[in-house]
C-alpha cells in the first residue's frame, strides 16, 4: 500500500512536529487533539517553525504555503482518521490513554491503515494488542525538534509485518529522515543509551562532582555533543526523563537504570526543565 493521507493524534511538541514534516513532504496531514486550545497553539507553532525554515533558506516560501494547505486540524478523532493511510499517535505516555486511543483508531481508521506510535517507553507489542490489526501496528519514534532531527527509530512489535515495516521505513525516508530498524525492547536504542548518560550526569550534580554548567561543558567540548546532558534533560523534560528511567528500571529489572534521587526531587518540586522555566538551569 502507498501512503498519501496521514493523521497525527496529539498536538503537543512531538505531534505538531510530526504533522509539520508530513505536510512539508507532500502528505495530507490532519492533526487531532481533543483540546481545541492545544490545536490553536500547534497551528501557530507549525506556522512559526515553517517561517523559521524559510528565513534560514531551508525551504522556499512556496513550500511553506503548500505545507500549510495540506494541513488540517480537528478535535474529532473518528473524522480525522476516517481516510488516513497512516496514523501516528503522539499522546501522553500513559498506558490507559494509549489503549483508549488505539481502540478508537482501530475502530475508525480504514481497515488497511497502518497505526504507528511515537511512544518512547511503552511496548509496541502491547499497543498492538489493543487492536485487531497487530500486524499493522509499529513504532515510529521521532526526535525533538522533529523538523531538524534526522532520525526515526522504526520499532517492530512481535507481530508487525514486513509489509508494514517497509511502508513506514519508506515514509521516513520520504520525510528526509534516516529510519533505523529497532526491536521492541524497553527504551529501544535511543533512550536505553541516552537516559543512563543523563542519569549519571544528575548523579554527578548530586554528589558534587562538578557544577551543572561544567558537567555540560565537559560533554559539549570533550564529546562534541550539541547540548550537554543536563541542558538536554531540561529540553526533553525532567518528568519525561524520570518516567523513561522508571520504565527501564522496572522492565529490564537492572539497578543500573535506577533514577537518581535528585532527578526525582526536582520532578516532585515541579522543576521540570524548559517547560516550567526551571530545571537544572533557569529559562525566561
Ligand atoms: N523547527 C524548525 N527549525 C528548527 C526548530 C524547529 N522546531 N528548532 C530549531 N530549528 C533550527 C534553527 O532554526 C536552526 O536552523 P539553522 O541552522 O538553519 O539556522 C537550527 O535548527 C539550529 O537551531 P538553533 O540555532 O536555534 O540552536 P542550536 O544550534 O543550539 O540547535 C538543536 C538546536 C537543534 C535543538 C541542537 O541543540 C540539538 O541538536 N540538540 C540536541 C537535541 C536532541 O538531542 N534531541 C533529541 C532529544 S531525545 C528525544 O526527542 C526522544 C524522546 O524519546 C526523549
Question: How would you explain this protein's 3D organization?
Answer:
The chain has 284 residues and is α/β, with parallel strands linked by helices. The protein folds into two domains: 179 residues, Rossmann fold; 85 residues, N-(1-d-carboxylethyl)-l-norvaline Dehydrogenase, domain 2 (Orthogonal Bundle), CATH 1.10.1040. The chain is 49% helix and 14% strand. An eight-stranded mixed sheet has the order 3-2-1-4-5-6-7-8, sandwiched between helices. Strand 5, helix 6 and strand 6 form a beta-alpha-beta unit. Helix 1 crosses helix 3. 3-hydroxybutanoyl-coenzyme A binds next to helix 2, helix 8 and helix 10.
List keywords for this structure.
2 domains; alpha/beta; binds 3-hydroxybutanoyl-coenzyme A; globular; 12 helices; 284 residues; eight-stranded mixed β-sheet; N-(1-d-carboxylethyl)-l-norvaline Dehydrogenase, domain 2; Rossmann fold; 49% helix; single chain; 14% strand
**CATH architecture type of the largest domain:** 3-Layer(aba) Sandwich
Which regions contain 5 or more consecutive residues with pLDDT less than 50?
none
Query: Which molecules are bound besides the chains?
Result: 3-hydroxybutanoyl-coenzyme A
Mean pLDDT: 98
Query: Could you tell me how far the N terminus lies from the C terminus, measured between alpha carbons in angstroms?
Result: 47 Å
CATH topology of the largest domain: Rossmann fold
How does the helix and strand content classify structurally? Answer: alpha/beta
Helical percentage: 40-55%
Largest sheet: 8 strands, mixed
| Strand content range | 5-15%
Q: Return the string of H and E elements.
A: EHEHHEHEHEHEEHEHHHHH
State the fourth-level CATH superfamily of the largest domain: NAD(P)-binding Rossmann-like Domain
Total of helices: 12
Shape category: globular
Rg: 19 Å
Strand order within the widest sheet?
3-2-1-4-5-6-7-8
CATH class of the largest domain: Alpha Beta
- Overall domain count: 2
Q: Tally of extended strands?
A: 8
